[in-house]
Amino acid sequence: MKEIENLYALLFENIKEGIVIVDPAGTIFRVNKRLESIFGYDPDELIGQKLDILIPIGKREGHKDHHKSFMKNPTTRTMGIGMTLQGQKKDGTLVDVEISLSYLEEGGERFSVGLVSDISTRVEHEKEIMSLNKSLEKKVELRTKELKDSQKLYQLIARNFPEGTINVFDKDLNYVFVEGEELYAMGITSEKLIGTNYLARLPKKLHEDIRTNLDRVFQGEAVSFQVNVKQNYYQISSVPLLTDGGEIEQILVVERNVTQQVKLNNKMLESLEKEKALNELKTRFVSMASHEFRTPLSAILSSSDLISKYLEKGDLSKTDKHLSRIQNSVHTLIDILSDFLSIDEMESDKVQYNPRPYDVKEFFEKAVSDIEVLLKSEQIIKLDFDLKNDTFLLDPRILMNVLNNLITNAIKYSNAGDPIEIKVYDKVNSLHFYVRDFGIGIPKMEQKNLFDRFFRAHNAENIQGTGLGLYIVQRYLRIMGGTISFESEEGVGTTFYVEIKK
Fold first, then answer.
1. Cβ 289 vs Cβ 202: under 8 Å
2. Average pLDDT of 198-224?
3. Among residues 130, 122, 133, which one has the least CA distance to residue 96?
């Protein structure tokens, strides 16, 4: 039981998000260290407090109704979609947060569970980007207005125009005037460009699009668009220049190098999508884990109670079965936790691949020996080698995770008495092995989804599992420069083939 408590504590206290568990009356039942850190509270200071203590004062009355409504009809969901939520810290300041809701039931009571992420940094970055965009738009509008009002073209053009150029083109898109920092950064002077054609400096694939947009300016429109030239992004804003007779003989074109802004936007979007995907994964895992943990924990609890009663009666003959049941349940919990930690490590790009020379035969023999305790009645593992070289460069931690997942699956999805075959062999530049079972197999129509996160085939739904094992195996093999393939027939069995290149 102590080991189980340690497993829960590890999961609860080391998750990157804050966790708050609230009872039906809205009283904080439990929090983790991360939540205390987000809101600036000391350890255990929040326990027994009303949840309102974390809600901004002006939002507390409305939140009570939301909490009551959620407790009546709880679902796993994200709060405030499309909104920026805020929480109130101990010192009274506000913090931007993202909250995912779930629930659990214990002892006949229903508790709400909140997963809280501090997104203050992300919100600040989004504000900076919006401010930068508004600033750029305002500068272009201001410069264009001044040019039209004063008609003093040369007074408005300066060589220090930041990160871009200001241009005047005739109807053939020849340069009439050009100045700006970007011009001189490329080692070109304005004198060299006057009278030359603008399109001649650009890739041919851009000519049609640029000509179409600038022709609209000669028709009297103000046009703005973006082009990509040799991995640089340029925002082009253009307006017509009217003669005294109201005709358009020339146009003003402002080019601005927005490469850094575009890269920053793309990076922010990538980070946002990655963060959302990771939060969704963790939310799904918390929901899945709460379900998957229930069965082994119940088995541990019932077996420990029965052992206590047998010990009181002095009847030791029946304790072995329940001790074995407890051990199997603990292994199940460890497998679930290991899956979650592996996913978190990979999704956070924290996996370090450290290959070193290793005795292949010794490695596989140890792996099989360690996992034999999980074999069902009369199951055996047949391990065979056909190696020209005993030593191979590999990362034992990552490969052990791959091998454990494949062998555990073979045990889990086979019947008692079914053998499991493992063969290890090498080729000139690669190490190969396969794991074969004679179990339930994978339905043909579902095989395409086998390596997806949380995938469980319909014929395996009644067998304990997270649906993460093969996803983790494939990700680990990619890190090692390896591949995995399989053959399977429902009711006959499955063989997984692994190749790891030197």
1. no
2. 91
3. 122
Q: Cα separation of 323 and 307, whole Å? A: 8
What's the chain's Rg over C-alpha atoms?
32
Q: Which residues pair with 164 in a beta bridge?
A: 256
Backbone dihedral angles phi then psi of residue 375, each to the nearest 5 degrees: -60, 145
Residue linked to tokens 């009546």: 72
Q: State pLDDT tens for residues 42-97.
A: 998 999 999 889 999 888 887 777 778 788 888 877 776 666 788 999 999 999 98
Q: 440: which DSSP letter?
A: S
Task: Read off the pLDDT of each residue in 109-114 and give the average, rounded to a whole number.
Answer: 88
d(CA 245, CA 247): 6
**Angle (CA) 347 348 350, round 5°:** 110
Query: Rounded to whole angstroms, how far apart are CA atoms 500 and 480?
Result: 7
Measured between alpha carbons, how far is residue 233 from residues 50, 118, 128, 161, 237 in Å?
52, 32, 19, 17, 13
Query: Rounded to whole angstroms, how far apart are CA atoms 348 and 63?
Result: 33
Tell me how far apart the alpha carbons of residues 323 and 52 are, in angstroms, rounded to a whole number.
45
Looking at per-residue pLDDT, the higher value among 9 and 352 belongs to 352
Question: pTM for this one?
Answer: 0.41
- Token pair listed for 405: 């997942």
Residue 456: other Cβ atoms inside 10 A? 15
DSSP, collapsed to helix, strand or coil, labels residue 398 as helix
Pairing of strands 482-489, 430-437: unpaired
Rounded CA-CA distance 358/355 in Å is: 9
Maximum Cα–Cα distance for the chain, whole Å?
A: 113
Nearest residue to 32 (alpha-carbon basis) of 127, 151, 114, 136: 114
Strand partners, 420: 381, 437
Return d(Cα 164, Cα 180) in angstroms, integer: 6
Q: Are 28 and 20 in contact (CB under 8 A)?
A: yes
- Domains of the chain, first to last: 1-123 (3.30.450.20), 131-257 (3.30.450.20), 271-347 (1.10.287.130), 356-501 (3.30.565.10)
Mean pLDDT lowest among 188-202, 300-314, 367-381, 393-407: 300-314
